[in-house]
Every structure is written in C-alpha cells, then in structure tokens.
UniProtKB/TrEMBL annotation, chains A, B:
Membrane topology, from the record: Multi-pass membrane protein
Family from the record: Belongs to the Casparian strip membrane proteins (CASP) family.
Keyword check for Cell membrane: yes
Organism placement in taxonomy: Eukaryota, Viridiplantae, Streptophyta, Embryophyta, Tracheophyta
Subcellular location: Cell membrane
Designated name of the protein: CASP-like protein
Transmembrane segments: 21-39, 45-66, 78-104, 124-149
Keyword field: Cell membrane, Membrane, Transmembrane, Transmembrane helix
Gene Ontology cellular component terms for the protein in this record: plasma membrane
PANTHER family attached to this UniProt entry: CASP-LIKE PROTEIN 5B3, CASP-LIKE PROTEIN 5C3
Organism: Ziziphus jujuba var. spinosa
C-alpha cells in the first residue's frame, strides 16, 4: 500500500499531533490563567473541550512516534475508523469552541460597557486563535486518515 | 460501481440538499426579519454565510433532482472533488456561524443588562438552531461524497 503523508503512523502525522497538543495546551493555559473565565459559558466550554483534545492528541502522538521508531505502522481498519471518528468529533467541537470564544470576545470588546479589561481580553483572543490553529491541524489529521480509510 | 446512499445523484442526496436549503432559508429569515441583527458581528456573519449556503444547496438540489429523474448520475472525479471541497468549506463556515450566534445569544440572555427583548432573542435562538441543522445535513453530504471520491 502506498504511504499517504499525514495518515496514521507517519512522521507528518506525528508533527500534526504534536502541533495539536501544543496549540490546545496553549489555548487552555491562556484561558485558565485569566481569572474570570468561568463567568462565561463559551469560555468554560473551550476549557472543557481543550481538556478533551489534549489527552487525545497526546496519546495519538505517542502512537505515531512509536510507529515511526519501530517502523511498523498500525493498519487495522477498525482502529483507524475509531481514530477518524474521534478526530472528526473533536475537530467539530474545537471549531465550535473557538468560534464561540471568538464571538464572545468580540462582543465583550465592542459592547458599550467596559466589561473586559484589555489584559484579559488579549488573553482570550490569543486563546481563541490557538484553538483555531488546533482545529486546523486536527481537521487535517482527520482528512488524511479518511483518505486512507477506503484503501484498507 | 455500487451506489452509496447520500452521494451525488441519489434520492437521499436530493433530500439532504433540500433540507439544507430549507433550514438555511429559515435561519436567514428568522435572523433578518428581526430588526437589530446588523449591530452584532456574529449575526451579520450568519446572514452572510446563509446567503452563500442557500444558492449552493439549491443548485446542487437541482443537479441531484435532474440526475434522479434522468437516471444518469454525474460521476466525474473533478466535479465531485469541487463539490466535496465546497461542501466542506461551507459546512465549516456554517458551523462557525451557528456557534457564534448561539454563544452571542447566550451571552445576551445572561448578561446583567436587558440587552435583548425576549421576542428578538427567541428569533435569534431559532435561527441558530436552524443553522445547526443546516450544518448537520451539509456535513452529512460532505462525508458521503468524500466516501465516494476514492472509488472513482
């Protein structure tokens, strides 16, 4: 079978997973080091989702690293299907969290009252941007694996 | 080639496209019949995206209807690839718009001041729900077509 770059068990996939872990951790840290995040539903949602994405991406990064080092890629359709579904669900949830956060931050910035001290608002914006990057890498992983799936 | 239900040129695909057109039109109408939608970025974004989704889904519904009636499905990889990419981009944008709208409505409802008269807020909520349904059908179309793509 030809190797698809970015699919499970390749170096590209390992980089994608590592990027997801880094960006989602950054998003979580920027959000939760601010003090007021629990007063907005969207921010709590982002923290929850990032708490799901980090272990998922980290585990798959370990699996990819192992396959690359041991040179024996994991090619079982059942496992790949689970990974594709998990990736797809998590990427949808990440996108939803990123968009919600971004729109709430935008509303807080442009609302009449000064709800949002600039220090916090910058953090929220960076957190939303990191979540978008994490979503981008996660959906790339998902697409590469979907592409591989019918050929198994 | 075996027929995949939901892929381009089947009755299921026609139903999906019709559903997308109906839900996105409903979302657009509920949002734009309210008066204040242009004062929030997220709502303007929803209206813009729905204005893109409606013609796309309607055109593809016509194509599907034609293929079903004429019994000659369109099976060219290039065209299918364009449709898959378009579907994917639009479903991502629809999800983003739906989440932004939902989170802004949630914030408006629970913010201290009474920003949002109940009559408008209900409309916004229905509009966000319709956008979510439209996203769901759109991503279903996209997945079915992605599934068909490697077999062409």
């Amino acid at each position: 079978m030809d190797e698809i770059p970015g699919s499970l068990g390749t170096t590209a996939s390992f980089s994608l997973r590592l990027g997801q872990t880094i960006f989602s951790s950054a998003s979580l840290l920027f959000m939760s080091l601010g003090v007021q995040f629990y007063s907005y539903t969207a921010f709590c949602y982002l923290v929850t989702i990032m708490g799901l994405v980090i272990p998922w991406s980290f585990t798959l990064a370990l699996v990819d690293g192992y396959s690359v080092l041991a040179k024996c890629p994991l090619r079982q359709p059942g496992i790949l299907l689970i990974i594709v579904i998990g990736d797809w669900v998590l990427s949808v949830l990440t996108l939803a969290a990123a968009c919600s956060t971004a729109s709430v931050v935008d509303l807080l910035l442009h609302a009449n009252g000064a709800y949002c001290p600039p220090k916090f608002c910058n953090r929220y914006q960076i957190s939303a941007a990191m979540a978008f990057l994490s979503w981008f890498l996660s959906s790339a992983s998902c697409l590469f694996n979907i592409w591989l799936l019918p050929s198994l």
